[in-house]
Amino acid sequence: MPSYWKPYALKYFTPVDEADASTTEPTSQQPPAPKAARVGGAVKAPKLLHAKEPTFNDFARRLQYSGVVVVNFHLEPDGTVTNMSIVHALGMGLDERALAAVQKYPFSPATQNGIPVLVELNVEINFEIY
Fold first, then answer.
1. What is the mean pLDDT of residues 103-129?
2. Percent of the residues in the chain that have a pLDDT greater than 90, as a whole number
3. What domains appear along the chain, each with residue ranges and CATH number?
4. Are strands 115-117 and 47-48 parallel, antiparallel or unpaired?
5. Pairing of strands 47-48, 107-108
6. Which value, to the nearest 10 degrees, does the dihedral of the CA atoms of residues 21, 22, 28, 29 take?
7. 14 or 129: whose pLDDT is higher?
8. What pLDDT was estimated at residue 3?
9. Whole-angstrom Cα distance, residue 89 to residue 96?
């Protein structure tokens, strides 16, 4: 199972195999991942510089399938997107298209006291046929 699906699967489906889950937890040899801040208070929001909306795949377009995919991710101090996961899935291949689009979004970083910081964000990708 891709890593971006694990949080969603744990919440809505069956638990991940214990052997599989142990590989994602930090070991004593790996330093713990830094804690991502949330926007608010002293942490100023990042700015999305420009966004190219993801496209429908042919199957979803033919069925006129629409909805919202919610993607959670970390925005690094250099403005890159990491640690993506699905919070609300839509299916029909549109979740993967949303992830691919978010991965390419250029951001100016979030700041705390003028210094770029790691933050955790959610973004909604709306798939709608007009």
1. 95
2. 65
3. 3-13+36-127 (3.30.2420.10)
4. unpaired
5. antiparallel
6. -90
7. 129
8. 78
9. 10
Please answer whether residues 127 and 45 qualify as being in contact, where contact means their C-beta atoms are separated by less than 8 angstroms: no
Secondary structure letter of residue 5 according to DSSP:
G
Q: Do residues 3 and 71 lie in contact, with contact meaning Cβ atoms separated by under 8 Å? A: no
| Predicted pLDDT at 33 | 66
Residue 115's pLDDT band (boundaries 50, 70, 90)?
Answer: very high
Q: Per the structure block, which two tokens stand in for 104?
A: 């390419």
What is the C-alpha separation between 126 and 69, in angstroms, rounded?
7
Q: What is the CA radius of gyration of the chain?
A: 17
Residue 56 contacts residue 48 (beta carbons within 8 Å) = no
Query: Distance between CA atoms of 42 and 110, rounded to whole angstroms?
Result: 10
pTM above threshold 0.85: no
The first and second tokens of residue 120, run together, are: 């955790």
C-alpha 86/C-alpha 42 separation (Å) is 27
CA-wise closest residue to 115 among 38, 48, 43: 43
Answer yes or no: are the C-beta atoms of 121 and 72 closer than 8 Å: yes
Structure tokens at 74: 């970390």
